[in-house]
Specification:
The protein folds into two domains: 2-152, Alpha/beta knot, CATH 3.40.1280.10; 175-217, Trp Operon Repressor, Chain A, CATH 1.10.1270.20. With 218 residues, the protein is of the alpha/beta class. The chain has a five-stranded parallel beta sheet, with helices on both faces. A two-stranded antiparallel ribbon has the order 3-4. It has a two-stranded antiparallel sheet with strand order 8-9. The chain contains six helices and nine strands, in the order βααβββαβαββαββα. The protein has helices at 15-18, 21-28, 65-78, 96-103, 141-152, 201-217; strands at 2-8, 32-38, 51-52, 62-63, 83-93, 107-111, 128-131, 186-187, 190-191. The structure holds S-adenosylmethionine (SAM). Residues 87-90, 112-114, 116-118, 131-133, 135-140, 143 line the site of S-adenosylmethionine. S-adenosylmethionine is lined by residues 87-90, 112-114, 116-118, 131-133, 135-140, 143.
Length: 218
């Protein structure tokens, strides 16, 4: 069983995606547990304040260290062997190799930022900083959802053989999936490649490997 914890100010963000399709089935089958931990519950004052203005001035607000670190500690208490990952544009780049690395861990805790991000001192309390790429999201939740979804589809028993992740792009480093076609044979003047209609499995396999190589090279 893989244990995921999401540290967030917006737990509702995850309701709909986790109630659909593959994540829904994986949760129902008991292959993965997902728990949202509301960071605001760890705020110290009666107004439940989780953000404050930056020292030195500048726009926006930052996530305060006290509630975020208390939420991380609560996550580590619930799952002592969890790997705590801060989502931040300054982190190392997420990849399929990372998803495979996380899949082989007992569990993961994904820390979602908001506002202008985190007080820098919070970095000392996480195991890793992770970025989705060189662009800026409004919050860590869409990033955490992508990471979690990509882990879930790799967990044993989640995908049936018809959906196997083994043939997905990037499973072999730098190698993309080949092009796929379904009915109809002709669509707006575009034909399905004839080899796929030939019934010759050796030719089809050769064509797919070649397409995959060409596409990856390009
Ligand atoms: N001021 C920050 C900067 O320029 O690096 C951006 C803060 S962003 C508006 C708010 C939060 O969204 C971040 O703390 C982080 O959790 C999340 N976030 C935004 N872009 C991200 C990315 N590319 N990868 C991972 N998390 C991201």
């Amino acid at each position: 069983m893989f244990h995921a914890q999401l540290l967030t100010l917006f737990p509702a963000f995850f309701d709909s995606p986790l109630a659909c399709s593959i994540p829904k089935r994986a949760i129902a089958a008991g292959i993965v547990t997902v728990e949202c931990i509301q960071i605001r519950d760890f705020a110290l004052d009666k107004h439940k304040k989780v953000d404050d203005s930056p020292y030195g001035g500048g726009p926006g607000m930052l996530m305060k260290p006290e509630p975020v670190v208390a939420a991380i500690r609560a996550a580590r208490e619930k799952q002592p062997d969890t790997h705590v990952v801060m989502l931040t544009p300054s982190g190392g780049r997420f990849s399929q190799a990372k998803a495979i690395e996380y899949r082989d861990m007992p569990g993961i805790t994904l820390l979602c930022g908001r506002y202008e991000g985190f007080d820098e001192r919070i970095c000392d309390y996480v195991d890793e900083q992770l970025s989705m790429g060189d662009y800026v999201l409004s919050g860590g939740e869409p990033a955490a959802l992508s990471v979690l979804d990509s882990i879930i589809r790799l967990l044993p028993g989640v995908l049936g053989s018809a959906e196997s992740a083994v043939l997905d792009s990037f499973t072999e480093e730098g190698i993309l999936d080949w092009p796929h076609y379904t009915r109809p044979e002709q669509f707006e003047g575009k034909d399905v490649p004839s080899v796929l209609l030939s019934g010759n499995h050796a030719d089809i396999e050769r064509w797919r490997q070649e397409q995959s190589r060409q596409r990856s090279r390009r």
